[in-house]
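Fold it.
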Amino acid sequence: MTADDTFGRLDDDDYPAYTMGRAAEILGTTQGFLRAIGEARLITPLRSAGGHRRYSRYQLRIAARARQLVDQGTPIEAACRIVILEDQLEEAQRINTEHRLTADTEHPTTAA
């Protein structure tokens, strides 16, 4: 692997660049919180060759949203479900927008 390959991965939101300790530090939470949201299936960290959990920037954003809800008093299981639903809604809206743009391109409206 070249240095360019390594630096290119740093821009990849899905690259598992952060250890559990570093992820917890970035989020200002505990490693136990990260384990709990993993058990709730909110995020599934990748594992290093040695079996250690590794987190991506995308996963950290998801975990940060869950932490925000938990800090507001939402039970962790409910917070995880809310974040999953928010993520699904965002994806559905993105797909809907793509379909709308495709339809507009294939069938442009004409002014009368």
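The beta strands are 18-19, 46-47, 53-55.
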